[in-house]
Amino acid sequence: MHLDTYLVTQQDLSAGRTTEEIVDAAIAGGVDVVQVREKDHGAREQLAIARRLREPTAEAGVALVVNDRVDVALAANADGVHVGDDDLPVSDARELLGEDAIVGRSVSTVEAAREAERAGADYLGVGTIFSTQSKDDIPEEEYEVGLERVRAIDDAVDIPFVGIGGITPENAADVTEAGADGVAVISAITRAADPEAATRDLDQAVAAGKRRRE
Questions:
Q1: Is position 212 annotated as part of the catalytic site?
Q2: If you count Cβ atoms within 10 Å of the first and of the last residue's Cβ in the chain, which end, N or C, has fewer?
């Protein structure tokens, strides 16, 4: 599973453009994973968005996962789901979606990373790396876990992970140099004047960071 550049959608942070428009541009820019995360929409609208994204992502070989909602992931025939502390446990999501599904888990500590790996998560989303205004539901203790946490989690687990939170083309290389396999972003792509170019810039920064740690 390639995780270099991972887009988390949020239509209200897309500068008046639709999620579909943003995803089309990100696909053209080389995005690896798209997570449908539309917290301001109910299940029906989330499902409609996921279904509209299923064909273009599948055709491009881009993994499509749904935030939180295993039922939406199933109904949309998505590739998997990404869960957090208040969602279904990884093991239950796996049981419902099947062994071939992608199951990701949000973590902010080394112990949580180890626990998610033991539970069978395929990958982790680690953050918040830097301060961000894209999410307003992050506990205070999880703000800016920083690059040292990335290094510690890299040492602690064998499964891949992306850093998320406040990541831009300017600092993405630092995150992958510290040990992350890629970066997950919202506004760095959704708010960009040119989302395709922004995706490409992030991808190049990720690669540069990996070269630094070789």
A1: no
A2: C
